[in-house]
Design goal:
Blueprint: H1 8-36, H2 41-69, H3 75-83, H4 91-132
């Protein structure tokens, strides 16, 4: 992420909290879009997981991937590669925590939003069956 986070484990926890919120919001938005196009719950979950991980952990994941693919043969190349990374000592930890937190956020959003919509649809069904008899 391009946010000024703390260094070390505190920065990892901050990034995880942001990823959790991104996951919840991602599911909420994907649920609205999928409901508008009359899609299934699985489509909403799949797109929410994909977008949450891309938004929350995309930049750090790319930096971790490119760091592994670069040829760090000289100290100059290594210094240039590490210069653009915020807290390179905890980059791998931050990526793992961001991915797990984003997926957990999607799961929490699914629980929160589906419960409310399930209750709303149950009341509509009860009103519909009661008036028809």
């Amino acid at each position: 992420m391009n946010l000024p986070l703390h260094m070390g484990l505190l920065g990892v926890l901050e990034a995880g909290l942001i990823a959790l919120l991104v996951g919840i919001l991602s599911y909420g938005l994907c649920q609205l879009v999928v409901r508008a196009v009359e899609g299934s719950m699985g489509q909403a979950l799949g797109w929410a997981c994909l977008t949450a991980v891309l938004v929350a952990a995309g930049i750090d994941t790319w930096k971790l991937f490119s760091l592994g693919m670069m040829k760090l043969e000289s100290p100059l190349y290594a210094r240039l590669a590490l210069q653009g990374i915020h807290d390179p000592a905890f980059l791998g930890t931050r990526v793992v925590v961001q991915v797990v937190a984003a997926l957990t956020g999607v799961a929490l959003g699914w629980l929160w939003f589906s419960r409310r919509w399930r209750e709303a649809s149950a009341t509509v069904e009860q009103k519909g069956t009661g008036s028809g008899r």
